Amino acid sequence: MSLGVDEIEGILSSRERMPTGASFPDGIVFGSWRVTAFLGKGGNGEVYRVVHVLLGTPAALKVLVRDEPRARERFMREAKLLSELKSASFPQFLEYGEANGCVYLVMELLEPGDLPSGDREVVRFLRQICEAVAELHVRGIVHRDIKPSNILWRMVGRDDHIAPTSVGSRVPRDRGRAGRASLPVPVLADLGLAKDIATAGVGRSTSDLTVGGVGTPGYGAPEQMERGEASVASDIHALGVLADRCFGGKPPKAWVRIIERATSSIPGRRYQSVAALVKAIQRRNLVRRSWTTLAVLLLAGLSAAAFVMLYRRYGGEEWKWWLMRSHEPIVSVEKGYVPYENPVSGRRGYRIVTQTNTVDGVVIRLNGKTVLFKKPMVLEPGEYRIIGPGRLDADISGASNAVVRLKGCVLNNLTAAGYQKNKVNYILEGDAYLNFANLDEDYRIRKCIGHFDGLANGDGGDVAFRGPSTREELRKTRRKERTREWQKELDEINATRHDDPRTRIY
Known about the structure:
The protein has helices at 5-17, 69-84, 119-138, 222-227, 232-246, 253-262, 274-282, 286-324, 443-446, 471-495; strands spanning 29-30, 33-41, 45-52, 58-64, 93-99, 102-107, 141-142, 151-157, 182-188, 195-196, 206-207, 229-230, 325-341, 348-365, 370-372, 377-379, 382-387, 391-394, 396-398, 402-407, 410-413, 425-429, 432-436, 449-452, 461-465. By secondary structure, the chain is of the alpha/beta class. The protein has three domains: 8-109, Phosphorylase Kinase, domain 1 (2-Layer Sandwich), CATH 3.30.200; 116-172 and 180-284, Transferase(Phosphotransferase), domain 1, CATH 1.10.510; 310-469, no CATH class. Strands 1-2-3-4-6-5 form a six-stranded antiparallel sheet, with helices on one face. Strands 13-14-17-20-22-24 form a six-stranded mixed sheet. A hairpin with a 2-residue loop joins strand 5 (93-99) and strand 6 (102-107). Mean pLDDT is 80; it is low at 1-5, 10-19, 159-179 and 199-211.
């Protein structure tokens, strides 16, 4: 019967808890450190909480209680390696020595913690652990015992430039001396089984010279547990198992292939380096993102095509109107007639009163173009100003409180609505021409037209019903009409005269 990782860890943890007694009482001193509490016991050593005798600084003390040559060699190797490692990915080395008949190692006091479970949190966590393992591999060293219990947590302030990692409740976020929130950062600890690999190459397997396997069952690679062979591939196997444990043995689909390759029973099929493993983790969602991007681009293309079709059929004029218009203050000078009575002569009459107004309205600039709107335009209440040069052909109608001011332009209103449905007020502010192309001359509509040039000193423009579309054509038409009327008048006069050449009018 084969045991899973959970069963193996349960057996190991129960065995570690069996020897509960501490070998040294509280208060005993190792070098400059005084023991304050017993933290735990391993296979060869015990861990205590200590404080500096003079400074009161807390730290962790590891004491080798089983004085065997191989265990003493490993312990000294761990202390030497910690003293050389200056990276924040490992516990900080403080002191090494011998006291009370045992060798001891003093290091930074860290806290145990739970593994993260979210996708992004697991990525941050594994990248930091892989960074520590890669640093060991560069030095030609393999860890050989990567597992959750050998990962401790350091509390770091939010202002420090270390990526935060979400962990469980056993490492709560606290606040520093300045009241800043702290975040836990993973640290790779317990380098007692760290081993030099062959100097000919970092990835080359070598024997540990240990009879049988070494490491933790369930995390150690098969070749490491069966034959004691340690290599870069064996550490990558442990990292793959660690990633699987973060997800409780049920990794997301994007992680399955990565974990399966990292934990392959054949070392040559695993990732060749920690950097390759990290790269695979970073690109875990590349295929899904590619398909998502392709789908987004496809939907965007279909949406753009649909928009173009609808724009050409329905929205072209609205788009053109939106581009032409702008919301700006409209300044106008209005003229009014006020009843007036001369206090001296008593004569009654009217006097002209001008008033300058500024309102927020819509300004349409034609910019010298001829613009045609086929769809009817129903104006909302408010002020509109159409500024030339240019010509606008549109079916314009609206409420009685909509005011359209024309300046230096031509407006051919194509509306067929009479006075009852088209009560827009038009004000001609100089050199403007307003033509109702589909309406006969209606005096009721003319009441809504004001001739004004902005200076209250003359006519503001021309108005026509069913007239020409341009001012030049209107002037030519009016000249012809005046010529015909003048000729008709001459003919009538001549018809009443005697047929005497001296009295004939030419």
